[in-house]
Specification:
binds iron/sulfur cluster, globular, alpha/beta
Length: 314
């Protein structure tokens, strides 16, 4: 299947906030804005390729001349402050309240202690996306804690649905709405322009190694082994129905050295979410005919699709 680039992420500063699994190294913080001519060139590139632009902001107010350039094209803003954000990224879940979707970036131990705060926030935001920065370090004990947390949150979400509210929490409500994979698309549908004028598969690749670029503004894009970023070439993921999984290309490479092969931890975490979503869907359907057009999520006996590899003829 041929997919085309659809999104261009522009990091406005080397210290732009992270909205995903990677952390921005401390040494990258501080003013290191993309030069304004480079920003204009990036926007031109986006227009020529017909890409939707997503700007990722640092935690300070940009000079006025930047604001004018930024506003010169359709875009969305990912910001570490609520003001003017289309997506607000925060590292604290305490007392959050917003009219726009919120991304909460956290480590697993903070997450396990935050049930009450998550429950509280679900009433106060249209959507909560939780992204963990240390999925690759999950142990069996962590899997158990994660499962318990998901079950507790699921009970609360069920209650909200029955009150005819529409809470959205990526870990539990995405899978019940999806009927095919909905993953991040880095290197396939999305690329990133960094403040050094180079393109990267995603921001995490830039922060990990600046020499690991896939092209520069003045030259054509050069994504090596492009097909490997596509689902069809992901030997495990293409057999999977944890449709909500981020299928993080950067985590894959970090943990297995292959962009299209996930780690055991990423798969188990995604399957715990999948199974908790299944329970949630079944529980809601006991009360009413919720999402009748949506197929049931079937019961499965594994948490890591790799364990089933013989069944797909590996
Ligand atoms: S759970 Fe594992 S196999 Fe399934 S999409 Fe996610 S990374 Fe791929």
């Amino acid at each position: 299947m041929i997919t085309m680039l659809q999104y261009l992420i522009i990091l406005l500063d080397k210290g732009s906030s992270s909205f995903c699994h990677y952390r921005v190294p401390l040494k990258s913080k501080g003013n290191s804005l993309i030069p304004i001519e480079m920003l204009k060139q990036g926007i031109r590139f986006g227009m020529t390729e017909n890409l939707m632009i997503q700007y990722v902001y640092p935690d300070y107010v940009l000079p006025t001349e930047y604001t004018e350039v930024i506003e010169s094209i359709d875009h969305s803003k990912i910001k570490p402050m609520k003001d003017g954000a289309d997506v607000w990224v925060t590292e604290s879940i305490k007392d959050i309240n917003a009219k726009v979707p919120v991304v909460w970036q956290t480590d697993k131990n903070t997450l396990f202690k935050s049930e009450a705060d998550i429950i509280n926030s679900l009433k106060n935001v249209p959507r909560l996306n939780i992204v963990m920065t240390d999925v690759d370090s999950f142990t069996n004990e962590d899997f158990e804690k994660y499962k318990q947390l998901l079950n507790a949150l699921s009970g609360y979400i069920e209650k909200l649905y029955l009150e005819e509210k529409n809470p959205q929490l990526n870990l539990l409500t995405d899978r019940i709405m999806l009927s095919k994979m909905n993953n991040c698309g880095a290197g396939d549908t999305t690329i990133t322009l960094a403040p050094n004028g180079k393109f990267y598969v995603c921001p995490a690749f830039y922060y990990e190694d600046e020499t690991d670029s896939i092209g520069e503004l003045e030259h054509v894009l050069d994504i090596k082994n492009k097909q490997l970023y596509k689902l069809e070439y992901a030997p495990i993921c293409r057999h999977c129905d944890a449709y909500q999984c981020k299928r993080c290309i950067w985590l894959n490479r970090k943990t297995t050295l292959e962009v299209n092969t996930p780690s055991h931890e990423q798969c188990v975490v995604a399957h715990l979410e999948r199974n908790a979503s299944r329970n949630l869907l079944n529980c809601i359907r006991k009360h009413n005919s919720f999402l009748p057009e949506q197929e049931d999520i079937k019961e499965i006996d594994y948490l890591d699709p790799f364990d089933k590899k013989e069944e797909w003829g590996w």
